[in-house]
Structures are given as structure tokens and as C-alpha cells.
Amino acid sequence: MRYKAVVFDLDGTLLYTLEDLYLATNHGLASQGLPPRTREEVRRFVGNGYRQLFRLAVPEGTPDAVQEAALASFNEYYLAHSQDNTAPYPGIPELLARLGEQGIALAVVSNKGDEAVQDLMSSCFPGVFGAVAGERAGVRRKPAPDTVLAVMRKLDLAADEIVYVGDSEVDVATAANVGCDCIAVTWGYRSVEQLCEAGATVLADTTDELERLLLA
Q1: Which of 57, 65, 119, 185 has its CA 20 to 30 A from that of 18?
Q2: Which sign, positive or negative, has the C-alpha torsion 69, 143, 135, 182?
């Protein structure tokens, strides 16, 4: 097999999280009397961490203090409701099981807040992943390579021994910054056109197709 480990993005790749992110975003906005965003707007905004989500979600000219208060309300609400409507994409649990059976190490690197990432992984994929990392203070988030490099050190693997799997331009750029292969999945939060514009050259439309690419 080509790879010893697969590092996955979380939102839009392993888990459908958009509904809960959408509801939490509008909860945070409403807490400060700000207008709501549509589900499709939130889809476009996610991928670069919570703070960037709210920079895009609040109206232009919103004072920083109001934006921060909305973000704090979002954080509190999302931690309590992150699993209300969230679930693995069809075929993902089976794919992970088959990769594990082949002896491939599995990891997750996400720009979602680390506390929420750890909660979701413990609930949705208990014991499946050998390394899990979300956004943390003092660590550059994707597309910086820092969190993936930390996972590689934990697994004692080099860039040519892993592949990064994600659904956005952030993930394509992350893999390029790490120097590892990348597979972009098309069932997530970006279109095929957006992924190709970002430089994706290997795409998977289904979990079966992703499995074939990973085990080739």
C-alpha cells in the first residue's frame, strides 16, 4: 500500500456538521441583535476556524467587541448542541473500519475548536483515531502545516507516507504546505469547481472511490 496513515479533515469530510454550525452561528448572531445568515452562507464561511466564520458572518462594520460577544455565544451554544443534527457521512464508518483492518493509521486535523473536535470524535468514532487535533491557542491553524506535522511526529511518519483527505481549498493548501499527497472529496462543503480551482488533482465522489485511492 502507498500510505501508512490517512489524515482526515472533519467537517464536510467525515461528519455532516453544517446544520448544527448553521444553527449555532445564527444563535451567536441573534445574541447580539445581528441579522441571521442562510445555511448556504454558513457553508461558504466554514473551514477557516470559528473566528474567521464570524468575521464573515457579522455585517460589515460590526464593532470587534460585538463580534467577539457573538462568537462567545456561538461557542457556548455549539458545545452544547454540536451533535443535535451531526452524523457521519454514509459509508464513512465502514471505510474507517476497513482501513484499520489494513493496518493504516488514522488521524484527524480540523480547524474546528479542539474541545468540540474531541467531543465529536469520542462520540462518533470512539477508539478509531490514533491522533486528533483541533484548533488550539498558540498553534497555527490550517492551511499552516503545524497540526499535521505534529500528527506526523506522533505517528513517526514522513510526508511521503501519509495522505491528507479533505473537502475544501483549505485542505488542498494544507497538504501542499505539508508536502504530502491530497485527496479531495466532493460530498462536502465545496463544489468540484472550487476544489479544482484550488489545485485539487485527485478527487473522490464516493467512499468506495476514496477507499480504492487510499489502498491502491
Answers
A1: 65
A2: positive
